[in-house]
């Protein structure tokens, strides 16, 4: 027995659903049964050369499938009615689908509408792939014929254009020949009619001399105008403006090169090292050190290319639109600036690993680095926005008020200054909070007042605390002794509201002294405490006039006095000045912060004393020894 052909049932079902949705023809038809005894009404759907039939139009799975490739579809005459037929035959229209294979029974179908029958016959007749291929071949022949016609027309048009060009060349040649003939004719006529008179020759010479003089005077006048403009303030301003622009291009090229070295010589190699089997550094530390350095490099590469393109069109220089593109993207510097100090701390911590330190020195020894360290490259982006502000100041100083770029450059400068102020405020506040947290963590007993965000750090340093005698008098006779200097050495921290006095413990930790947290509101400062001549002689000249007294009268405890001795008169003046200011004026903004042993002074950097500090884990705080 011959086996049936297996089909991919799932794929056939999906094609049936596609035929239900996008079929060429869809509708109900009556199909003669296999035993030719009765007609069965089915819902048919034609998709390409596949004819599906379903039990009804709501069926989701086809009941059967006919392959129409190579078949012939024609109208069929109505059969003779049977005696027992109940339906009138004049309402039925028949058509058959004949398959070319032997012993293949024809598919007999019928419908009630003649138009519907004709449309089904036409659709099935054109469903064959062979028919489509024949039509495609005919269309390709027509297309190739049209291409030949187009190529022929192009050739003819080219020949006509060549003929026109040859005709124009011939016309120009004839015009030149006619002009030369006319000149020759005029020359012949002039030689025949004009007499050789001495006066005429003198007039020609005079005209020629006058022509030379007029040309010389015109050139002299233009030379004077140009020289006057070159010496004018406007020309000098334009020269300086161009010099500023060219310097800006050179500085931008140098900055892009620095960022390129930072990314290619340090960032990317360290990323690869962090992915090694025994990484000397983690990916988190690499991200903390470099943050968005690669993004900053891409941004300035684009800006540099645009700037170089504008310079190439000199003397027409339009720079304002470049700053319009750059300004919205400069906010990425805020994150870098806030993270800068934290990145340096992470780098210092990683350098304690010998493998990392050795690898970093290998990177820094490359010729591109020119003996510069990684810290130097990480600091370069900190000065870029201030450099842009200075450049725009110089550019505006040499740009006339009526210049087309004046308003745009002024707007760019104001936006950069606003961004710089925002970054300065954020960094100053962050620096102060981090400084307070670092000091609080170093104090073993803890200090809750440092957790107040309004507490502003002012200065820190080493002072000597003089003990009091039992009767409450100052033992100034021991001020010069070495034992007192060692025993009485205190680490003092001045804040906007409090003075904290600590002793140094083991491992660099600090201990609060008795009455070591002093509220400045309850204090009275005496810069030159009274002393007798004997005490002054016993104290020695090396500590004379270096001590100052702080009287404290707290509300909830008995009053007491603290005597502190500075190492120099300058240091004493700095301490007493800062303490007196905090006692009478309260806290000051954190923009002026003193270092460990110096006076409070404005930072030379664009954003605070530490350039920029993030709110990451505070690193070790340096204390004077």
TrEMBL record:
SUPFAM superfamilies membership: DBL homology domain (DH-domain), PH domain-like
Coiled coil: 150-191
Keyword field contains Coiled coil: yes
GO terms for MF: guanyl-nucleotide exchange factor activity
Pfam families associated with the record: PH, RhoGEF
Keyword terms of this UniProt record: Coiled coil
Domain PH: 22-129, 467-584
Domain DH, residue spans: 240-426
One GO cellular component term noted in the UniProt record for this chain: cytoplasm
Coiled coil found in the keyword field: yes
Cross-referenced CDD domains: PH_RasGRF1_2, RhoGEF
GO biological process: intracellular signal transduction
Domain of life of the native organism: Eukaryota
Name of this chain's protein: PH domain-containing protein
Provenance organism: Marmota monax
């Amino acid at each position: 027995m011959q086996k049936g052909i297996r089909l991919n049932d799932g794929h056939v079902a999906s094609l049936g659903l596609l035929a239900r949705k996008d079929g060429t023809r869809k509708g109900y038809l009556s199909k003669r049964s296999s035993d030719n005894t009765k007609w069965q009404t089915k819902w048919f759907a034609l998709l390409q050369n596949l004819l599906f039939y379903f039990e009804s139009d709501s069926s989701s799975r086809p009941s059967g499938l006919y392959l129409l490739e190579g078949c012939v579809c024609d109208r069929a005459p109505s059969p003779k009615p049977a005696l027992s037929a109940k339906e009138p035959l004049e309402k039925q229209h028949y058509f058959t689908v004949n398959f070319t294979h032997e012993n293949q029974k024809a598919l007999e179908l019928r419908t009630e509408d003649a138009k519907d029958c004709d449309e089904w016959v036409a659709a099935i007749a054109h469903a064959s792939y062979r028919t489509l291929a024949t039509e495609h071949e005919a269309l390709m022949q027509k297309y190739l014929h049209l291409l030949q016609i187009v190529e022929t027309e192009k050739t003819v048009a080219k020949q006509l254009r060549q003929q026109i060009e040859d005709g124009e060349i011939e016309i120009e040649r004839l015009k030149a020949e006619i002009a030369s003939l006319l000149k020759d004719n005029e020359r012949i006529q002039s030689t025949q009619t004009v007499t050789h008179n001495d006066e005429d020759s003198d007039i020609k010479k005079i005209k020629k001399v006058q022509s030379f003089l007029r040309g010389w005077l015109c050139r002299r006048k233009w030379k004077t105008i140009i020289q006057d403009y070159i010496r004018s303030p406007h020309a000098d301003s334009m020269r300086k403006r161009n010099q500023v622009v060219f310097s800006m291009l050179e500085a931008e090229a140098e900055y892009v090169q620095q960022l390129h070295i930072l990314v290619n010589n340090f960032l990317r190699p360290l990323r690869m090292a962090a992915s090694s089997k025994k990484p000397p550094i983690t990916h988190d530390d690499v991200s903390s050190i470099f943050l968005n350095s690669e993004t900053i490099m891409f941004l300035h590469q684009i800006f540099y290319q645009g700037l170089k393109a504008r310079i190439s069109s000199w003397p027409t220089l339009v720079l304002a639109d470049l700053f319009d593109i750059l300004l919205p993207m400069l906010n990425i510097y805020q994150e870098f600036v806030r993270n800068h100090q934290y990145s340096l701390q992470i780098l210092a911590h990683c350098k304690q690993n010998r493998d990392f330190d050795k690898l970093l020195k290998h990177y820094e020894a490359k010729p591109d680095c020119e003996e510069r360290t990684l810290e130097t490259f990480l600091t370069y982006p900190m000065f870029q926005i201030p450099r842009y502000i200075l450049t725009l100041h110089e550019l505006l100083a040499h740009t006339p008020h009526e210049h087309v770029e004046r308003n745009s450059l002024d707007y760019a400068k104001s936006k950069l200054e606003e961004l710089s102020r925002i970054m300065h405020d954020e960094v100053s506040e962050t620096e102060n909070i981090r400084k307070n947290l670092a000091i609080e963590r170093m104090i073993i007993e803890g200090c809750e007042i440092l957790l107040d965000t309004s507490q502003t750090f002012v200065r820190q340093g080493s002072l000597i605390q003089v003990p009091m005698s039992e009767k409450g008098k100052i033992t100034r006779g021991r001020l010069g002794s070495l034992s007192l200097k060692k025993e009485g050495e205190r680490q003092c921290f001045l804040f906007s509201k409090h003075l904290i006095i600590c002793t140094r413990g083991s491992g660099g930790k600090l201990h609060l002294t008795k009455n070591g947290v002093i509220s400045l509101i309850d204090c009275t400062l005496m810069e030159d405490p009274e002393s007798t001549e004997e005490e002054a002689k016993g104290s020695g000249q090396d500590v004379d006039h270096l001590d100052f007294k702080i009287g404290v009268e707290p509300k909830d405890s008995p009053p007491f006095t603290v005597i502190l001795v500075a190492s120099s008169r300058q240091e004493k003046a700095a301490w007493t000045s800062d303490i007196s200011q905090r006692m009478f004026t309260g806290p000051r903004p954190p923009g002026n912060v003193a270092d460990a042993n110096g006076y409070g002074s404005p930072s030379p950097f664009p954003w605070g004393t530490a350039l920029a500090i993030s709110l990451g884990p505070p690193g070790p705080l340096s204390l004077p020894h």
